[in-house]
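Structure (tokenized):
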């Protein structure tokens, strides 16, 4: 259940994404038409803004997708985590991004 996962994080509710994250496809990835993926780890502050965005996986490395993902995620808006009805900062969020040209 979702609730027990949130409780183990010390919050009543984890942050929730309010809008889709639109990551532009880097030219290098477009030209090569390769499947690319990144995984970002980050925190969400009490206003719902992501911060401390860190790339924990980028494949293929150096494709430019990590930077594009960081920029897109930094513009995203979340509902902040809550504890006891108060908004609280929350870390340890992960956001995978995949770009697929063929399966």
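Design, position by position:
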């Amino acid at each position: 259940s979702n609730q027990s996962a949130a409780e183990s994080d010390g919050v009543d509710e984890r942050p929730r994404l309010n809008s889709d994250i639109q990551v532009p496809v880097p030219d290098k990835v477009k030209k090569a038409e390769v499947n690319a993926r990144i995984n970002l780890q980050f925190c969400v502050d009490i206003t719902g803004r992501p911060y401390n965005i860190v790339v924990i996986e980028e494949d293929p490395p150096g494709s430019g997708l990590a930077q594009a993902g960081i920029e897109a995620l930094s513009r995203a808006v979340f509902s902040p985590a809550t504890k006891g009805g108060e908004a609280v900062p929350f870390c340890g969020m992960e956001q995978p991004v995949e770009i697929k040209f063929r399966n």
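Reviewer-requested clarification: The beta strands are 16-17, 36-44, 50-59, 78-79, 81-83, 86-88, 90-99. The radius of gyration is 15 Å.
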